[in-house]
Amino acid sequence: MSIRCVTRFAALVCVGCAAAWSLACAQDTKAAPGAGRYAGEVSDAVPRIERAVGLKFKRPPRVEPRTKAEVRAFLEKEFTTSHAERDLEGSELANKMFGLIPDTMHLRAQLENLLTEQIVGFYDPKTKILYIVDGAPANEISTVISHELVHALQDQYMNLDSLQSIEGDDDRTAAAQAVIEGQAVFDQLVAMTGTRNFMTMIPGGWDGIRQQIRDNQGAMPAFANSPMVLQETLIFPYLSGAEFMRDFDVHSPGKQPYGDMPISTQQILHPDEAYFGHREVPLQVTLPPPPGGPSKVRYSNDMGEFDTRLFLFQHLNDNAAAIRGASGWAGDRYQIVDTPQGPALVWVTVWRSSVAAGQFRDLLMQTVTARYGAHPTRSVAVTPVEIGGHPAVVYVDAPAGAGTKLVDAGKIVIGG
């Protein structure tokens, strides 16, 4: 359920972590002034990007400068589409119900500030133009151009813009965005170093890149002051996606992932087990209408393994427990339901084994205590059930007086 309106834009933008990647590559960059001042950098980068990705540009993208004010105006326009407004409203409510952002936070304003700070350059699949933000440090420009050229090349062989139209399946969206950003990170480094074994050239290897990105992000005020869920959602497609693409490059050298995209964050997090080996396909969970009918459903989406981790970590502050509790995830669905007393959360998770379900249930009970104390003032229920032969856990968090009978477990449908 994490805030995928962030990572929808991450499929377009090169955020501040580009500075960390540039540290790994000793390159002198000279931004020539005047019109067409990035033409030289683009001409130099195009053949290197083609070799790194293994695809040819059908046509190189135009490159234009943009001011910070123009970037903010772009974001504001994107956020006011009907799709984005629905997603923002639902995401804000869901994140508050899960306890991942403060009840007082205005999500749209937070995201506009965060992304305006983060964006150094971006490729817009609608206009097919690569934009560089005025004032970008000169030593980052070639890094940004290399990264965004990968996106432009991807867009010529798949429809990047279609990622923004996915609704109601945040987990699948996150997985797709991890591939898009992960390939841009991986092949950008291949292009800039001239070798697919670039790890040998980087102090600390992959751990060094990971730490550089986190250190660089933490130095940015809007990022540093954002809730954990925003920080981790923004970083996930770059870090975990690049690690996935590193593994993909080993398993399928010379191939592209576009025709067989991962469909869950579980496949990104555990590629050997869930993607390259025995393919773990998420189970589709369909919830019945709540009391009062479908009109009472304010918002519905899924969490996936990664977001389930974030939820557990947010409230338990124990990374090992969060990873352990989310492992064995097989599918989920949640609804925000209107009741006379206010909105309630209904979340159904399905698990690969009864052991995994029991482990998650125990940790979920601990999160309830961590959030509300031993005697919660809300109506909260954590119920183990079996649905279609699959172990599952039903979690209901409702206002006091609303009761917890907001879903009929016997009518939940599990599909492959």
Spatial shape: globular
SSE-based structural type = alpha+beta
Give the strand order, joined by hyphens, for the main sheet. 6-7-8-10-9
User: Could you estimate the helical fraction of the residues in percent?
Assistant: 40-55%
Helices and strands in order, then pairings?
Elements: H1 4-10, E1 13-14, H2 18-23, H3 39-53, E2 62-66, H4 68-79, H5 82-97, H6 107-118, E3 121-124, E4 129-133, H7 138-155, H8 170-193, H9 205-218, H10 221-224, H11 228-251, H12 265-269, H13 271-276, E5 284-286, E6 297-301, H14 304-316, H15 319-326, E7 329-339, E8 342-351, H16 354-372, E9 379-387, E10 390-398, E11 413-415
Parallel strand pairs: 2-4
Antiparallel strand pairs: 1-3, 3-4, 5-11, 6-7, 7-8, 8-10, 9-10
Helix pairs in contact: 1-8, 1-11, 3-7, 3-8, 4-6, 7-8, 8-11, 14-15, 15-16
Summary?
The protein is of the alpha+beta class. The protein folds into two domains: 4-276, no CATH class; 284-415, no CATH class. The chain has helices spanning 4-10, 18-23, 39-53, 68-79, 82-97, 107-118, 138-155, 170-193, 205-218, 221-224, 228-251, 265-269, 271-276, 304-316, 319-326, 354-372, and strands at residues 13-14, 62-66, 121-124, 129-133, 284-286, 297-301, 329-339, 342-351, 379-387, 390-398, 413-415.
